[in-house]
Amino acid sequence: MAPILEVVLPIFAIIFAGYVVGRRGLLGDASSEALNGFVYYVALPVLLFYAMARVKPETIFDLPFLAAYLGGSVIAFILAFAVSRLIFRHGQAEGALFGMSAVFGNTGYMGIPLALIAFGEQGQVLSVIATATQGLIWVPVVLILIEGSMQGGGGTATRIAKIARGVALNPMIAAPAVGIAWSFSGVALPTPVANFCSVLGAAAGPCALFSLGLFLVGKPVSEGIVEVAGMVVFKLLVYPLVVAVIAFGLIDMPAQPAAIAVLLAALPAGANCFVLAQNYGTFVQRSSSAILFSTAAAVATISVLFVTPYLKVP
Q1: How remote is the C-alpha of 307 from its chain's centroid?
Q2: Model-level pTM?
Q3: How is the chain split into domains, by residue range?
Q4: Does domain 2-306 have CATH number 3.40.50.2000?
Q5: Rounded to an integer, what distance in angstroms lies between the CA atom of residue 290 and that of residue 294?
Q6: How many CB atoms lie within 10 A of CB 147?
Q7: Per-residue pLDDT tens over the stretch 224-271
Q8: What are phi and psi of 131, to 5 degrees?
Q9: Is 269 helix (H, G, I), strand (E, B) or coil?
């Protein structure tokens, strides 16, 4: 019970505080966009860079962790995409967004502070790795599937350039990539730079959680509740179960990285799912509903996860 009270509830309490403040309009209509912009473009990229720049290169490329976390996401995405196309009869673009909502977790806004509190610096580092790698893989894959289902748009070369530019300019990918490059240089961060990153990066966790609460206010609830339920089940149950089988059964992983991989897989759907859906004007309500309901349900599922013998908080 202690991990729930000490780790899980404070995280969701900050999200709920943001939701209440947003619901009551205490910070004004533009507060969500402004705070989210600060987190997305300033505080969180600084934290991602700082976390990667200070660790050894061999720690960054934790192959067993990546095999469990990303390998599990590939399996879960294929299953979800097949369910979307064969059972719900979605088109390719809708199937891609269904699959993304089933595996693309809120590792940046929720995973980093949660894993840091629960597992310390190793939890933070692996959360940053998960944030960067899932963005590097799933954003291009989903964009390719969506663009491939569309007619026109300037041809294949234009679409590839658009996708490459979007990935390269994504601060959730670019910031840790620069940090990794710095790590490989073997040069220590200058003290003023390290202090700047430490102070500003510390704002990322609480601001991200509060911003997430603001973001959830007023999001449309879909009529396609069965599809939404399917995405939530895949995100909170199927995906972490696949990762657990890989981490604890197929790969000889140390207990703590395996637990972190499962925890990150069990996070609710990330906001990028809604952003892409809104950008292309398809699957918007279902994507937003998947984020809303998976975040609410994660209070229970993550609490249960923390009392299992596999997820031991040090």
Answers
A1: 23
A2: 0.82
A3: 2-306
A4: no
A5: 6
A6: 18
A7: 889 999 999 999 999 999 999 999 989 988 989 999 999 999 999 988
A8: -60, -45
A9: strand
